[in-house]
Write a structure and sequence with these properties.
alpha+beta; about 290 residues; six-stranded antiparallel barrel; elongated
Amino acid sequence: MKRASLYSSSRPKAVNEILVSKKIERKKFLWKEILRRHRVPLLAAAPGLIALLAVLFQWTYAPAPQQLTQEDVDAAVVRSFDTVPLPSAATKAYEAVRGSVVRVRAFVDGPDGGEVEGSVGTGVVILDSGVILTNIHVVASAKRISLTFSEGLESEAAITGTRPEDDLAVLQAKTLPDDLQAATLQSTSGLSPGDHVTAVGFPFGIGPSVSSGVVSGLGREFRSPEGKRVLTNLIQFDAAANPGNSGGPLVNASGEVVGIVTGILNPTQQRVFVGIGFAVPIENAAMAVGVPPF
């Protein structure tokens, strides 16, 4: 004999509705009892469940990652250069050499028997033992020579050698700053007209001052204004130079010294820069010290 279903059509409709209602009430009671017994663990787990649901929602509806092309990368690099400009060639050259540039002052006897400043120029440290190159005409006839290093230390100096044919003098500092930086020297064999160069020095005692330009020519000759000597095999450049730049370094785009500034060509009596400066190649300067430069 087949057992009648709980919801058998043989029962009256009202009885079926009562039984369904009681079953629903019983399920509600069971859920309430479960929630009451596990209320604390469920509350503790709620934040984690919410976070998990948020991650699942984002993962489900987030747009697919964009595939970068080479054009996208190139555009990003261009935007970066536009927003953060690179330092200029002159800035990089100056930063490389500035720790090696010194102000040179030559003192002579004054009319009243005291000491006066006879001339001011520039020097460049080429050995960290305090060996410095400058021009002879900066320190000629000096009773006393004073140096000021890049960090402000002052020291007296003595002339230890000269090379008159290149208007070069070698100085030895008596007091050295800590961690004295010697300049890096670079052969002029690869130097060409049009190459970028920077002159660093103390024009009219002001500085250190930086000017930039290009190599205008090589192998030039220059006669000093006094006509005492003719200098040969010079680097011609158009970076601004004035009295006081003499003896300072002429450096390439990497901040390596390729020459020592020694003179300017000027047809007037004012002795100011008109666009033509001359520097002694660093090979000649190194020979004045008596050591190979490279």
